[in-house]
C-alpha cells in the first residue's frame, strides 16, 4: 500500500475507533487527525467531511460489477438484488463485524440522517450505471437502483441495531423481497 493508502486507512481506522468509543456526534475531526498522527488538513484531503470517514462505502465497486455481470434479459430489480447478494456473500467474517459496528454507529448518530441519503446517492449512481451498461433505460435503472438501495439500507440498519439475526439472513430476506422472490 502506498503512502496515500496507508494514511487513508489510518484516518478511517482512527475515526471508526473514536466513533465507537465516544459516538459520532462527540468526536471531532481534530481528534481523528490527532489519533491518526496527521494534521486536520490532511484528514480533509482524504475525506471532505467528517461523515465521509464513516459513510464512504467500499462495497460500491464490487456491487456494481456484480450487477453488470447479471444476464442482460434479467429484470432490473432482480439484477440489482442478485448482484448485491452475490457481492455481499463474499464478505469475510471480519468485514461482517466491521460493517455491523459501523452501521450501529450510523444508526445511533442523529446528525447523520441526511448523510446516509447523500451517501446512498453514490451507491444508486454506481448501480444505475451498471444497469445502463447491461441495457436498461435510464429511468428504469434509476428507479430500480433507488428502490433496492432504500430497502437494503433499512434492512441493514435494522440488522445493525439487533443481535437477533445474521447479516446473511437479513440480506436474504431483504433481497428476496426487493428482487420479487
Q: Do you know the CATH topology of the largest domain?
A: Tetracycline Repressor, domain 2
Q: Please give the largest β-sheet.
A: none
- The name of the CATH architecture of the largest domain is Orthogonal Bundle
Shape: globular
| Total DSSP helices | 10
**Overall radius of gyration:** 17 Å
Compute the number of strand runs: 0
Q: What's the CATH C level of the largest domain?
A: Mainly Alpha
Oligomer: single chain
Highlighted features:
single chain, Arc Repressor Mutant, subunit A, 0% strand, 181 residues, Tetracycline Repressor, domain 2, mainly alpha, globular
Compact summary:
With 181 residues, the protein is mostly helical.
Can you characterise this structure?
There is one protein chain. Helices cover 75% and strands 0% of the residues. It folds into two domains: 3-53, Homeodomain-like (Arc Repressor Mutant, subunit A, Orthogonal Bundle), CATH 1.10.10; 57-178, Tetracycline Repressor, domain 2 (Orthogonal Bundle). It has ten helices and no strands. It is mostly helical and 181 residues long.
Amino acid at each position: 500500500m502506498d503512502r496515500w493508502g496507508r494514511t487513508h486507512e489510518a484516518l478511517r481506522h482512527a475515526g471508526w475507533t473514536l466513533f465507537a468509543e465516544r459516538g459520532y456526534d462527540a468526536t471531532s475531526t481534530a481528534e481523528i487527525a490527532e489519533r491518526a498522527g496527521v494534521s486536520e488538513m490532511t484528514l480533509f484531503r482524504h475525506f471532505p467531511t467528517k461523515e465521509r470517514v464513516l459513510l464512504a462505502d467500499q462495497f460500491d465497486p464490487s456491487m456494481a460489477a456484480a450487477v453488470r455481470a447479471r444476464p442482460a434479459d434479467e429484470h432490473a430489480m432482480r439484477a440489482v438484488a442478485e448482484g448485491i447478494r452475490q457481492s455481499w456473500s463474499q464478505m469475510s467474517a471480519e468485514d461482517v463485524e466491521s460493517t455491523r459496528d459501523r452501521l450501529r454507529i450510523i444508526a445511533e448518530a442523529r446528525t447523520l440522517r441526511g448523510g446516509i441519503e447523500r451517501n446512498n446517492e453514490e451507491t444508486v449512481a454506481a448501480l444505475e450505471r451498471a444497469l445502463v451498461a447491461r441495457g436498461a433505460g435510464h429511468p428504469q435503472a434509476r428507479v430500480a437502483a433507488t428502490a433496492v438501495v432504500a430497502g437494503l439500507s433499512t434492512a441493514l440498519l435494522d440488522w445493525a441495531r439487533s443481535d437477533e439475526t445474521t447479516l446473511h439472513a437479513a440480506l436474504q430476506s431483504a433481497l428476496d423481497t426487493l428482487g420479487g422472490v
